Each structure stands twice: as structure tokens, then as C-alpha cells.
Amino acid sequence: MSAASAIREERTSPFSGVNSVFIGYELRRRFNRQTTIFTLLLPAVLYLALFRTAPDGATLPHGNFAAWMMTGIAVYGAATAAVSSAATISVEKASGWMRTMALSPLAPPGYLLVKVLSSVVMAAVPVAVVGVLGVFTGVEATATVWVTSLLVAWLGSAVFAALGITLGLALKPDTVMHMPGLTMTALAFLGNLFIPLSGTMLEISRYSPMFGVSTLARYSLTEGYAFSGEHSSLAMAVVNTVAWFAAFSFMAVRRFRKSTGRN
Amino acid sequence: MIETRPRPVSEEVSSSDPVRLSSVVKRFTDAKGEQFTAVDGIDLNIRRGEIVAFLGPNGAGKTTTIDMLLGLTRPDEGSVRLFGGEPRQAVRSGQVAAVLQTGGLLPDLTVEATVRMLGSLHRGADVDAVLTRAGLDELRGRRVAECSGGEQQRLRFALALLSGPELLVLDEPTAGMDVVARRDFWATVREDTERGMTVMFATHYMEEADRFADRVVMIDRGRVVVDGSVSDVRSALSGRTVSARISERSAAALAESPLVRSCTPRGGRYHFDTTDSDALLRLLIEQTSAADIEVTPRSLEEAFMTLTHQNRTEGDNR
Fold first, then answer.
1. Chain B residue with minimal CA distance to A110?
2. pLDDT exceeds cutoff 90 at A238
3. A24 belongs to a structural domain
4. In the 8-state DSSP scheme, what is residue B85?
5. Distance CA A7, CA A254 (A)
6. Which of B15, B123, B162, B163 has the most A C-beta neighbours within 10 Å, making it the best mutation to test the interface with A?
7. What is the pLDDT of residues B153-167, one digit of tens each?
8. Are A261 and B72 inside 8 Å of each other by CB?
């Protein structure tokens, strides 16, 4: 009895049970046709359509317009991949899988950790694809820009991993197929990712969830300047990112608490 | 995996019993904002190695009790201890496993993927052995959505076996299954319990309790109404109904007999609920002018209804 108990004690840490096999199945479930279109095909097509659409006289301190677009699309792709957890979570909620999870060693924090980890893994794929496309389509940038822009685009997806959990818990499986993809595309336009914004639009954009991550990702390229000359500070971008991450995480945890158990 | 675990000793009565529910109460608030008591003070101890059937009509509080037992719901009053500890702890560590009534499976996964995925959460779980034990070898590649109700239930059972649990809780595991699927399911479970697992199962079917359990606990309206060995409960509940056309006076006289448990007039006939129908028949024929005599076996469901009904009236009179 004591030996068995000791083993049982040992594996009841909050994150116990998080393992590569489980995450492997989680990832396999996520790579369906829908997510492949939104996370691989769409970013690639958008990049190829947009990388030459520089505004007249656009100049950047540390690279060219293609680099600016590559970073924007990388942020968009990573975010969309991260939010794809919504589809699996929604199905899990509808099928009662949450109860199965509640009875497994995967304590609530562990379940959320699996979702976030697989989102981060998923997010690497579009970032890599857009990066490779960038190499072949004449992106010019310093080494620092290459590294920081793609890295921030990738890690910034954590913000949207939290949003994915919230959407998954809030939406029904039949709506969740299209909602996250469309939401992310709308947020991307709003967040200054596809078309360089200026004036009032840029003002509004500053408060949107993707603005922070994209500004951070592009900072080493643009030093915070828009093509129209407006400046966004690094601090503002950090505040935007942290605030949205906190907001989405708060919503996710609250929804998650409500959805497990009946009390 | 299970074979290597130390096996329980059934005589041992201690604070580390698999299940100890003490005066557990749970209230819910319905849509209109009115409170109702789903579980109204249940005491229940289950010792190691026992197989306990948990019976009760719909809405009696079975599922609520099981949810509290598994730590899915917190009781408003009283305490729940599994193996002397917190339910959640015992459940997460795999010492206690549950087969829930419906749902809980992902429709897009295959049977094998489901078992492997959850198996990865339990250190040392033997996925292949579990698949074989639950009789799922032929279904490995089938998607859960394409499995029948009985097959899905066997899959839930397989998942419950992954951690090598010492206590298995089943919530109406055969609800909605046909007779054959039910028999197959219980054959599978029985094989496993012979290894010494403690089992508690909720069911509607008296016959399942009868065939499978050592002990029967019946609840109604959130209270325990019967708790005893299967044979005790069966004899308390068994019996036949003898009905006949008979004069009111004779009926009243017969109702005094110790053979008759109850007597109800219905449709111009008197129905006598008896433990010994042969003796009652003799009485009827020898001492009364009873006509159109019929003897029907009392179904266990019927007996159960009477029993819970009796308890209700007693409870209301108190």
C-alpha cells in the first residue's frame, strides 16, 4: 500500500500528467483541414499578395517593406494557430470531455498548460512558413530584425492561446469552426498587420489586441514609426500586450472554472 | 499493472475505508430560485473489496451523491473521504476511477487513441492490457462516434482501468444498453472485480444489483432507505400478488393474516401482497368464497416502488 501511495502522491502536482504523448494527440486533433487553411495556406497567400504593396516612399530604418509585411503576417499566422485551440475545446466541452479531464491526473492547471503548449507549438508553423517565404521574396533586414521579429511573433501567440481557450469555452462546436479564423482576420486588419494604418484608424488600432504584439515584433525594424510618421512607444506596446494577455487569461480561467463540475 | 498492486483486506474497518460519507447534504437552486435538497443526509461506509449496488428511482440523488463522492461537486454539509483523504486527491491520483453515465469521450478520436491519450496521464499504465481486458481489441481503430452505446461504455470502463484503481465507481453504466450488451458489460466488469477491486455502482436495474452486488444501498429522496446484503434485501422485497373477487368482510379478515403484507382493492378485486402465495391460496380456497383467483409474481421494480413509497408515507407522517 505504502509504495503505491508514494507513487500516487508523487504524481498529483498541479501539472502532473502533462506529457509529450498527450500533447502529440492534442496536436493531431488540431491539425484538421480548417486549421491548416487558416494557419498555413492563408498566411502564405496573404503574404504573397501583400509583400509588394508598399505605400509610396515607404522607408524603414532597418529593412524593407517586405520585412514589415512578413512580420505582420507572421504575427497573424501565429495568433490564428494559437487560437485554433478553440475548436478542440468547444468539442471537448460539448462531449463532456471536461468531466473526464476533471477526473484525470491532469488537474485544471495541467489541462490549460497542455492547451497553451500545443498552441505555442502550432504557432511556430506559420511563423516558419512566412519566414521561408520571406527569404525567397527579397526581405531585407538586419540579423537582429530577422530574429526578434519572428521570435516575438511566435511567442506573442500566447496572448491568443488564452483567447482561444475563452472562445472555445464560450462557443458551440458548429460556430467555432469559422469564428476564430474570422475574428483573427478582423483583428489583424484592425491591429495594423496587413495594411499600414494611419490617422484615426491607427489611433483605434492602438487599443486592439494585435497591435501590441505586432508593434513589439516590428520594433527592431521600425523603431516604432508608422509609414505615415506616427510613433508608437515600446512601453505602449508592452502595456497593450500585457493587458490583453491578462484580460484573455482572466476570461479563460473564469470560464474554465464554470465549466468544470456542477458546483 | 493491477496484479502488482497490494490487494485489500475486507475485514479491516478503519478511517482509510474506500468510501466514508458522513451526513452529506447537497441542495440545488432550481430555475425559479427555489431550493430543493437533492441529497438529504446520507451516511455510507464502504469497506475494501465490497461490491455495492446503489439503487434509487430517477431523481433520488444517486448522481449527485456520486458527483460528491468523486469531488466533482462539493457537499453543502457533511464530509466525504475516500481512503481517508480528499476525494479529488484520490480521484486524480487514480486510486479511484469512475465510469460515468454518458459523454466524456471525444467523438473524433479512435478507441485506441482515446485509451493511449488518457493512458499517458497515468505512469505505468498498460494500454494494450487494458484494451484487451475491456474487450476492445477488435475496435481499436474505430472512431468513438461510430461505436455503439455498449462499446462506448466498454471504452469508458477501459479508461477507468488505466490507473489500476482500488475503487471503481460506476454511474448507471448500462443505462440505454440492450440485454446482450448489458450482460457482456457486466461479464467484463466481473472478471476485473475478481481481482479484489472495491466497486460501487448506481443502477436502475434490480436484477443487476441482484446478480452482481454483495450489498445493496437504496436511496430515495436523498436518503438511505435500505442498506443490507443482497439476500436480505431480496427476501424483504420478494413475494407475489394474489388477487381475487372476494367479499369485503373476508378480505378484511384475510388482511389480518401474517401472510399478507398489504391488501388493496382495485377494479372490483382485492390484491394481496404476500410472502407465501401457496399458503394464502389455501386460505382463500378453504376459508372464503373467493373467485377468479390470480397469482402474479411481484416484480422487483414493483417491490421497490412499494418500499420507497412506504418510506415516503412514514417520512411524511413524522
1. B121
2. yes
3. no
4. B
5. 32
6. B123
7. 899 999 999 998 999
8. yes
Coil, strand or helix at A39: helix
Q: For residue B103, list chain A residues with Cβ-Cβ distance below 8 A.
A: 95-97, 99
In this structure, what C-alpha cell is assigned to residue A240?
Answer: 497593450
Is A78 domain-assigned?
yes
Instruction: Give, for B223, the enclosing helix (H) or strand (E).
Output: strand B223-229
Report yes or no on A17 lying in a domain. Answer: no
Q: Which residues of A touch B85 (CB under 8 A)?
A: none
Q: How far is A57 from chain B (nearest CA, A)?
A: 52
> What tens digit of pLDDT does each residue of A168-202 get?
998 888 888 778 888 888 999 999 988 888 889 99
Domain spans of chain B, in order of start: 2-235, 239-297
Residue A211's domain comprises 35-259
Chain A interface mutation, best of B27, B68, B93, highest count of A Cβ atoms under 10 Å: B93
Note the ipTM here.
Answer: 0.80
Measured CA distances, A63 to A131, A138, A145, A220, B31 (Å)? 14, 10, 8, 9, 61
Q: CATH number for the B239-297 domain, one of 2.60.40, 3.40.190, 3.30.70, 3.40.50?
A: 3.30.70
Instruction: Please give the full DSSP string across B105-134, using - where no structure is assigned.
Output: S-TTSBHHHHHHHHHTTSTT--HHHHHHHT
Chain B hits for A29, Cβ within 8 Å: 106, 108-109
Q: Strand B96-99's sheet: what is its strand order?
A: B96-99, B167-171, B198-203, B51-55, B215-220, B223-229
Cα dist from B113 to B53, B83, B110, B120, whole Å: 32, 31, 5, 10
Q: Are the beta carbons of B103 and A96 separated by less than 8 Å?
A: yes
Could you give the CA distance from residue B256 to residue B260 in angstroms, rounded to a whole number?
7
Instruction: Tell me which CATH code domain B2-235 carries.
Output: 3.40.50.300
Residue of A nearest to B91 (CA): A103
User: How many domains does chain A contain in total?
Assistant: 1
Closest partner residue to B72 (CB to CB) among A7, A105, A262 is A262
Residue numbers in B near A114 (CB within 8 A): none
Least confident of A127-136, B49-58, B155-164: B49-58
Do A72 and A234 meet the contact criterion of CB atoms below 8 Å apart?
Answer: no
Per the CB < 8 Å rule, is B104 touching A97?
Answer: yes
